[in-house]
Task: inverse folding
């Protein structure tokens, strides 16, 4: 998924075949992503969501 706009594009790297693709561009927002950096941003965003949810529960 794009860490910028959140869209899951058809040309984004997926699975084992996708591991050879180091960079890809999002067709929605036009941003070029390094796949590792993009994945890190996605994980970070998920962590923040969980943190926000935890605070709301408290
Ligand atoms: Zn995007």
Result:
């Amino acid at each position: 998924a794009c860490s910028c706009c959140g869209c899951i594009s058809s040309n984004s790297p997926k699975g084992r075949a996708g591991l050879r693709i180091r960079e890809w561009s999002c067709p929605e927002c036009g941003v070029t992503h390094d796949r590792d950096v993009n994945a890190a941003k996605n994980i970070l965003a998920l962590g923040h969501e969980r943190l926000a949810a935890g605070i709301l529960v408290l």
Remarks:
- Residues 2, 4-5, 7, 26, 28-29, 31 surround zinc ion (CB under 6 Å).
- The chain has one domain: 15-57.
